[in-house]
Amino acid sequence: VSTSHLQLAAFAFGTVGWIMCAISMGLVEWRVWHVDNTTIISSGIAWVGIWRVCFISYLHVSPGYKEQFCHKFGVLDSFVPHEIYAAQGLLLIALIMGLLGLTATIFALRNIYMGIVDKTLITRFFLVGGFFYIFSGLCVLVPVSWNFYSVTHNESIAFPPSYYMPSSPVTQEVGAAIPIGIIAVILLLLSGTFSLSYRFPVTSNTIMQ
């Protein structure tokens, strides 16, 4: 047990990183657009996520949405940029890989804390968990970096008229989802490193004379 403190930390970091990955995926605040036409976008600010785009409007542009209008991206929408499609797929993969990493770590820690001394089994579970953590972290890193690049270069999106969005903002800035994703990447990569660093303790037999 005394040799698995880092791996216990890996499980804790991995759990928090996995949760933050899920939060980042669900948030709409990936890219914050500032627009000059406030006729429909009343606040002059719109939020572009990887699943939908939202803004506050005092007009009834969509029944049932009150003052907030959201429009979901369709699977066949050709206007959606590649970095958003990539984020959708990679973050789903990251969640699955992260969950598998947590499962493998739980099994390894269970064996240790229950006194099941099986060097091969414990070591393999930590190795598998570590690889899953690292792969999950890389799957989050790609869309986070790609969308960050798009924001810093103020890239546009050719929204159709039904979205009530301009094709390009006056300026845009990073939303809350991207820094949350960056923290998730750091925690998942740390979890993977800690899991892969596990070494089964070597015991020596002492002959008493």
TrEMBL record:
<feature type="transmembrane region" description="Helical">
    <location>
        <begin position="6"/>
        <end position="28"/>
    </location>
</feature>
<keyword id="KW-0812">Transmembrane</keyword>
<keyword id="KW-1133">Transmembrane helix</keyword>
<keyword id="KW-0796">Tight junction</keyword>
<dbReference type="InterPro" id="IPR006187">
    <property type="entry name" value="Claudin"/>
</dbReference>
<feature type="transmembrane region" description="Helical">
    <location>
        <begin position="121"/>
        <end position="146"/>
    </location>
</feature>
<dbReference type="InterPro" id="IPR004031">
    <property type="entry name" value="PMP22/EMP/MP20/Claudin"/>
</dbReference>
<keyword id="KW-0965">Cell junction</keyword>
<dbReference type="GO" id="GO:0005886">
    <property type="term" value="C:plasma membrane"/>
</dbReference>
<dbReference type="Pfam" id="PF13903">
    <property type="entry name" value="Claudin_2"/>
</dbReference>
<feature type="transmembrane region" description="Helical">
    <location>
        <begin position="85"/>
        <end position="109"/>
    </location>
</feature>
<feature type="transmembrane region" description="Helical">
    <location>
        <begin position="174"/>
        <end position="198"/>
    </location>
</feature>
<keyword id="KW-1003">Cell membrane</keyword>
<dbReference type="GO" id="GO:0005198">
    <property type="term" value="F:structural molecule activity"/>
</dbReference>
<keyword id="KW-0472">Membrane</keyword>
<comment type="similarity">
    <text>Belongs to the claudin family.</text>
</comment>
<dbReference type="GO" id="GO:0005923">
    <property type="term" value="C:bicellular tight junction"/>
</dbReference>
<protein>
    <submittedName>
        <fullName>CLD34 protein</fullName>
    </submittedName>
</protein>
<feature type="transmembrane region" description="Helical">
    <location>
        <begin position="40"/>
        <end position="59"/>
    </location>
</feature>
